[in-house]
Amino acid sequence: GPRRDPRIESALAHIAAHLEEPLDVPTLAARAGLSPDRFSKLFAAEVGEGPRDYVEDRRLDHAERLLAATGLPVARIAEACGFAHPFYFAARFKKRHGLGPSEWRRRV
Predict the structure, then answer these.
(1) What are 38-79's pLDDT values in tens digits?
(2) Residues near 94 by beta carbon (within 8 Å), at least 6 away in sequence
(3) CATH number among 3.40.50.280, 3.40.190.10, 1.10.10.60, 3.40.50.150, domain 6-107
(4) pTM of the model
């Protein structure tokens, strides 16, 4: 298919490599040399969702892998996936799965 904008390709690679770090839109936009507004619009047009949602989705994907494959405590997984607060992580995880992270882990 058509190639993505290289600034967005670069942002996607940066996100994948730095999930444990804060990845706010102004910082990602500055790395891409764009205003936050322009970056958000371009990102959504190229990727199909906004950068904030995309980052959270990738963080939750990573958390699922860690929950399934490791015995790390949930709070440690939340931190490793870039969630500042374990309670926020648990709430977002539950919104996605209908189960909290500990319960989900027991079932996989």
Answers:
(1) 999 999 999 999 999 999 999 999 999 999 999 999 999 999
(2) 100, 101
(3) 1.10.10.60
(4) 0.92
